[in-house]
Amino acid sequence: MTSFLVMPTAQRRQRWSKLLVIGVVSGWLGVVGLPATAGVQWPLTQQAAIAQSSISNEEITQYARAVLAIDQYRNAAYTQIKDILLTVEMDISAINMSCTNTQNISEVPRSVRRDVREILTRYCNDSRAAVEDMGLTARRFNQITDAHASDQTVFERIQQELLRLQEAQ
């Protein structure tokens, strides 16, 4: 195996890009999950099947752009919440919160709970706006997220689009 430091520059850049994409998507999937709009809720497997069968190239691009925008908000919110929790000697890994799961907010000490809730709410609102600005509904975004997690082809299409968008920057 070639040492990373002796790889040609183009190969290193490509490897870093892939690692960045994997990091962005992995970190982002752990936090994101936009509240779905009102309507019929199908079982997750049925939602994923519907999303997989009909995800257009345009939707893949919209989704990838939304992911990149959301990741900026996620990083900022994560850092702010982590810093707040450190003031009460609590590790951020001790709680598991997302836009769709705020049940753990009660585990945050009262003295900082309001601040954490405000940051999380702002993050969720900004994320929803980013998704809508890219032309997707929150529901469709979540369907594509489900498909991303369960279908290798969808995963690869999204990863390729993220790489393309990052290389274009």
What distinguishing features does this structure have?
70% helix, 169 residues, disordered N terminus, mainly alpha, DUF4168 domain-containing protein, DUF4168
Order of helices and strands: HHHHHH
How many helical elements? Answer: 6
The helix fraction, in percent, is: 55-70%
**Number of structurally distinct domains:** 1
For the biggest sheet, the summary is: none
- Looking at how many chains there are and whether they match, the oligomeric state comes to single chain
Large-scale geometry: elongated
Mean pLDDT: 80
Which regions contain 5 or more consecutive residues with pLDDT less than 50? 1-5, 16-22, 28-32, 34-42
Radius of gyration: 18 Å
Domain DUF4168: 56-158
Organism: Leptolyngbya iicbica LK
InterPro entries: DUF4168
Pfam families: DUF4168
